[in-house]
Design goal:
Keywords: Signal
Order of helices and strands: HEHEEHHEEEEEEEEEEHH
Bound molecules: 2-acetamido-2-deoxy-beta-D-glucopyranose
Strand content: 25-35%
Radius of gyration: 23 Å
Number of helices: 6
Largest sheet: 11 strands, antiparallel
Number of strands: 13
Helix content: 10-25%
Mean pLDDT: 76
């Protein structure tokens, strides 16, 4: 009987493909978009929600040396000297980035994801264009072009296997409306034993080597690093509306350089801040509704957004958003930084 059902489904599938008006895989109870949208880089945009283009600025500060030796060794050999150029350093670099604020999967799919929204931040060495066509949807693309990814929960894409965790890496809370037409404000933290943030690489000065490469590992309070003074678990903050978004991640890290055999290289602890500012990619976003809970009226894949990705016909136009408001959040955030 199963076999017969499968055989019956095939002509139906082919008919739907031929007519081209029905996405047989589309399910309004899921958080995926219809798959009949052309020109959409599905690696980044498969879910219903809002997408923002911007850049992510990484800052390393409060650098302190870390000493792995035992107390007796330290007594014998003396305190570790961290060379001058590494002390009190603040090091900053940035990547182009896409912020995705999207619907969560339904409860029976991800029962432990109690978050109101999913948040992902994708960064790129190349502004997302250079490697995309060659490595689309492959893990190869990630290693080549994605220096850092943040996901509040491991995101699932159509093509990805289902060996995913159902538990979020960050617990998120949307502040209840406190006035009229405020942007959404979201806070979050992770109390996991292991810091869920991915490792990254940076270039900064070193004491002993010239290329300045450092491997950076985000750490948690549970990592038993008594000498990381003032360390806290990782936290996130997000402010967004249908025109712009600001997102920040704060964590503590340890970092070290590549060591030649027997070479003494410093290990440091530091504070890591990642700040994203971006504006809506209207052509790739659904219509964000006002008020909590955060919900979207799916538009990408429907009506005038079905097949076209040009700006004028995007969700922003459909939602009637005033383009001049686009920079309002960014303005507020920048004012805050400079005051
Ligand atoms: C795309 O799929 C959605 C969902 O199945 C459907 O409502 C829409 O009409 C389709 N658009 C086109 C152009 O086929
Ligand atoms: C680092 O900054 C602290 C506080 O500003 C200061 O007391 C200390 O002398 C500085 N250390 C170096 C090596 O510049
Ligand atoms: C993005 O990168 C590509 C390839 O490096 C380049 O051709 C293009 O001009 C860049 N676009 C922007 C907006 O920077
Ligand atoms: C989220 O909250 C739940 C319930 O308090 C807790 O069990 C879980 O460990 C938290 N998850 C994270 C990532 O902090
Ligand atoms: C670090 O420097 C190397 C060599 O100049 C370069 O290839 C690499 O892209 C740099 N990495 C970062 C994160 O800036
Ligand atoms: C946003 O970024 C995507 C991916 O790089 C790009 O294709 C799109 O044109 C950008 N949209 C806007 C409005 O800048
Ligand atoms: C959709 O496009 C058609 C043809 O360009 C236009 O007449 C109609 O007003 C559009 N609908 C919406 C909701 O933008």
């Amino acid at each position: 009987m199963r076999r017969a059902a499968t055989l019956l489904q095939l002509p139906l599938f082919l008919a739907a493909q031929a007519i081209g008006s029905e996405d047989v895989n589309y399910d309004p109870d899921e958080n995926y978009r219809p798959r009949n949208v052309t020109g959409l880089d599905y690696y980044y945009y498969p879910w219903i929600g809002s997408y923002y283009n911007g850049s992510a600025v990484f800052t390393i500060s409060d650098v302190e040396p870390q000493d792995d030796r035992s107390d007796s060794e330290i007594e014998e050999e003396g305190e570790l000297e961290l060379c001058g150029q590494l002390r009190n350093i603040t090091y900053t670099w940035s990547y182009p980035a896409i912020l995705a604020i999207t619907e969560t999967e339904p409860e029976d799919e991800r029962p432990k994801n109690t978050n109101p929204i999913d948040v992902s931040l994708f960064t790129s060495y190349s502004n997302f264009t250079q490697y995309f066509s060659d490595y689309m949807d492959s893990s190869n693309m990630q290693t080549r072009d994605v220096p850092f990814i943040f996901e509040s929960i491991e995101m699932s894409r159509y093509s990805f296997p289902t060996s995913r965790d159902t538990k979020p890496d960050f617990n998120l809370t949307v502040a209840e409306d406190t006035g009229n037409e405020l942007p959404f404000r979201v806070t979050g933290s992770s109390e996991l034993e292991q810091n869920p943030l991915g490792t990254l690489q940076m270039n900064m000065s070193t004491c002993s080597r010239t290329e300045g490469w450092w491997g950076v590992v985000p750490i948690s309070l549970d990592d038993d690093l008594d000498d990381v003074s003032g360390g806290t678990n990782p936290t996130v903050q997000l402010t967004f509306d249908d025109s712009s978004a600001s997102f920040s991640i704060r964590s503590w890290i340890v970092a070290n350089t590549l060591a030649e055999e027997d070479e003494e290289t410093p290990r440091i602890s530091a504070r890591l801040t990642i700040e994203f500012l971006g504006r809506i990619d209207a052509a790739r976003s659904d219509v964000l509704n006002e008020g909590t809970p955060v919900i979207w009226t799916p538009s990408m894949g429907f009506g005038n957004n079905s097949l076209s990705l040009d700006y004028e016909s995007g969700a922003l136009a459909a939602a009637g958003v005033n383009i001049r408001q686009i920079w309002s959040i960014l303005g507020a955030v920048l004012a805050y930084i400079f005051i």
